[in-house]
Amino acid sequence: MFDAVINALTALGQWLNAAFVAIFVALWQITLDLFIEAMDLLLQGVTSVLGMLPAPSFLAGVSLQTLFGSLTGDVLYFFGVFNIGQGIGLLGSAFAFRLLRKVVTLFQW
Description:
Number of helices: 4
């Protein structure tokens, strides 16, 4: 008789434990979702502020396409041989990664 009561209390305790864990996991996921939404709103605000900034006046008449278009064929050949375009892209991505790392670590590095 006591075994049935103990088994029932054990089952109730396991059910309450499972319910508590499920509620805690759900609350944690809601917290993560709210954090992601807040970061999304913050980054959208930053991009809108950056989008409103005007371009500098000394860059008004300059475009990379016209600058590269005015290069001679020899220079363009060596740009291709030495992979200058890929190198510039690699440098840009490295700089972006460095800035992202500084932002993620809250400027500690």
